[in-house]
Design goal:
The complex is a heterodimer of chains A (244) and B (401). Chain A is built from nine helices and ten strands. Chain B is mainly alpha-helical. The radius of gyration of chain B is 30 Å and the shape is elongated. Classes of the chains: A alpha/beta (244), B mainly alpha (401). Chains A and B meet through helix 2, strand 6, helix 3 and helix 5 of A and helix 2 and helix 10 of B.
């Protein structure tokens, strides 16, 4: 469970995030939709305590990120916008590194490792160095690395960015599986189709503010548009920076 | 007991970071080459070549016949005989001695005036002109040799004139200087080897340089710092793991250099110059001890500087500039006649420099000096690490995009 209340963050005179608040519940997939530059990544960065909000509050499973950032990070699995694999290490070594940073014991480490490797269908690339990996292989490795400690809450920043159709479908299946396991899944995207297909709840962000927070059906009713694409354009006020 | 320690270490996040950085960088050919090959071995090799050239030059000049153009040789046949006995080969006169010296056609030129013979026979003082360029250091031994030969000839002739007049030669030289040189073979060597400490510091610097850049600026450029910081590990622990990896590489670099110098020390024909050079185990041990806190200081300074840069290349530029800093104490000591005072040992770099030179001179480093050096540099390292920890806390550090 992730709760965000009235987040603000400014870089100089630019207000990147200007009063964002929403909740992402367990057993649901929550989509953070918005055009490029709307403040999605900055919001997520405050969630996983990489940045401190100017004001506002972040609660993960009821723990305040400002007072106990380590517990919050322990409760989160994060795929940042920057995938950042270590190219001189193999996929397995990349995953193992993060597992050890989480302090996992051997039994837990390899059990989780095997489960993730099967779920992500990446056994064939495990012992290759990540240098020269395709975009899809990179994302798989980064996700396995991020979820090795079995977190209740999963944050994925534009997970399908740059993936081909097959890889995207695989990733969507994986996200459904996370949801079925009862986890709280929060992911950002600027692709409407994806959000519509996956999400139980959609939070639309534009210009650093939440302009809509509803189920896809409710969003259609709210805007009076039968087509979700038209609904998005209506709440954002422009179609700039969105992809169908 | 050991198993418990191993287990705890294995669980410490800093150790995990350390292991991963070491493993990753052992796979990087450029880092390996610079830390374990070119960095530590180039120094000793260059050093041997330099010293050999210098020694051969000096030996050559002392023994070899020296060609000196002499103008007016016919006026002073006896002087010329004396010079030739001293290994000087009189060459054909040059038209303009000043130009010949300035254009480096000759190291030194002698000019004997036409009135030499007449004045000599009348027992009057005569003049021999010597043209040279004191800014050309390589000719100084030739100039000195010619001057000494002429003076010796003059003294000898003067003594004979006094004897011919029934006087003791001693009357003309009431005071004589008796030279008592206190230099030992080792201290003479120290003069020649004054750049040795600089080699050690540079090796230390180079050994950790690529790691320091890669582990901060490089990680940021490859965007891996953000996922790393998303782990439930305090940033200072991550930093400590990285610093430990940098320290290990620079220490390994230094160890290789010391080993190379110990081997190469035998190849330097220092005894030919009446010098003694001891680069053995004891020397290596003292250098290693003096350098230990400096390893920490340099590692955190490099990391700090690299953390300011936006990219790998920028970091490389900054860190290269930082490399100029260790030059300062070496240059100071080489060109300024500084008498070592106790407090100087507490100054990082300067202390190491003085300590190594003392050891090289064969004086040995005292416990007080050693303590001051270690404490001074360690304090500086603590401050540098503190500042770097602060830097690592900044929000800006993790953001690559």
């Amino acid at each position: 469970m992730i709760e965000v209340r009235n987040l603000h963050k400014a870089f100089g005179a630019v207000k990147a995030v200007d009063g964002v608040g929403f909740s992402a519940r367990d057993g649901e997939i929550t989509g953070l939709l918005g055009p490029n530059g709307a403040g999605k990544t900055t919001t997520l960065r405050m969630l996983y305590t990489l940045m401190k909000p100017d004001c506002g509050q972040v609660l993960v499973d009821g723990v305040d990120a400002a007072t106990d950032p380590l517990s919050v990070r322990r409760a989160l699995g994060v795929l940042p916008d920057a995938r950042g694999l270590y190219k001189r290490l193999t996929a397995r070594e990349n995953i193992e590194y993060f597992a050890r940073l989480h302090g996992l014991d051997e039994a837990m480490l390899w059990a989780r490792h095997d489960a993730l490797v099967d779920a992500l269908e990446m056994r064939d690339i495990l012992d290759r160095r990540t240098e020269g990996f395709s975009q899809g292989q990179r994302v798989k490795t980064a996700i396995a690395r991020a979820l090795i400690h079995d977190p209740r809450n999963v944050i994925l920043d534009e997970p399908t960015n740059g993936l081909d159709v097959m890889a995207t479908r695989g990733l969507r299946r994986f996200m459904q599986q996370l949801k079925a396991e009862g986890r709280c899944v929060l992911f950002s995207s600027h692709i409407m189709q994806e959000v519509a297909a996956l999400c139980d709840r959609i939070v639309v962000i534009a210009h650093g503010r939440v302009v809509a927070d509803a189920t896809p059906d409710a969003l259609r009713v709210q805007t009076g548009e039968a087509n979700l694409e038209e609904a998005f354009v209506k709440v954002i006020g422009t179609d700039e920076g969105l992809a169908a | 007991m050991n198993a418990v320690i191993t287990k705890n270490l294995r669980r410490s996040a800093a150790f995990t970071v350390f292991l991963k950085e070491v493993r990753e960088n052992l796979r990087d050919r450029r880092t390996l080459l610079s830390a374990f090959f070119t960095g530590p071995l180039l120094g000793p090799l260059l050093f041997v070549m330099l010293v050999n050239v210098q020694i051969n030059q000096q030996l050559d000049k002392a023994d070899k016949p020296l060609h000196v153009p002499v103008i007016g040789a016919q006026y002073a046949p006896h002087l010329l005989d004396a010079l030739e006995e001293g290994g000087i080969v009189p060459d054909a006169p040059v038209a303009d001695p000043g130009t010949a010296v300035r254009k480096q056609d000759a190291d030194v030129v002698l000019r004997i005036g036409a009135g030499y013979g007449k004045a000599w026979r009348q027992g009057e003082p005569v003049q021999v002109e010597m043209f040279y360029d004191s800014s050309r250091q390589d000719t100084s031994s030739a100039v000195e040799r010619v001057q000494k030969l002429v003076e010796a000839y003059a003294r000898q002739q003067g003594a004979m004139r006094l004897v011919a007049r029934g006087l003791s030669p001693g009357t003309a030289w009431p005071v004589q200087v008796a030279k008592r040189d206190q230099a030992t073979p080792q201290s003479r060597a120290a003069l020649l080897f004054a750049i040795l400490p600089y080699f050690f510091v540079i090796t230390l610097f180079m050994g950790g340089m690529y790691l320091a850049i890669d582990l901060t600026a490089g990680e940021r450029e490859r965007q891996s710092l953000e996922p790393l910081f998303a782990n439930p590990v305090a940033r200072w622990k991550i930093l400590f793991g990285k610093l430990a990896a940098i320290c290990l590489f620079s220490l390994a670099s230094l160890a290789i250099t010391l080993l190379a110098f110990a081997v190469v020390g035998h190849l330097i024909p220092a005894e030919k110059l009446g010098m003694e050079l001891d680069l053995g185990w004891r020397f290596a041990g003292i250098v290693l001890l003096l350098m230990l806190p400096l390893v920490l200081l340099l590692a955190s300074l490099q990391t700090l500087v690299a953390a300011f840069a936006k990219s790998y290349r920028e970091a490389q530029t900054y860190v290269s500039l930082l490399m100029m800093v260790p030059l300062i104490p070496s240059a100071l000591l080489a060109f300024l006649p500084i008498k070592a005072r106790a407090w100087m040992y507490a100054v990082p770099l300067l202390g190491q420099n003085l300590g190594i030179m003392r050891q090289l001179r064969g004086d040995g480093v005292g416990a007080a000096q050693l303590g001051l050096c270690l404490a001074g540099t360690l304090s500086a390292a603590a401050v540098a690490i503190g500042v770097t920890v602060q830097m690592y806390r900044s929000e800006r550090l993790a953001i690559s995009g």
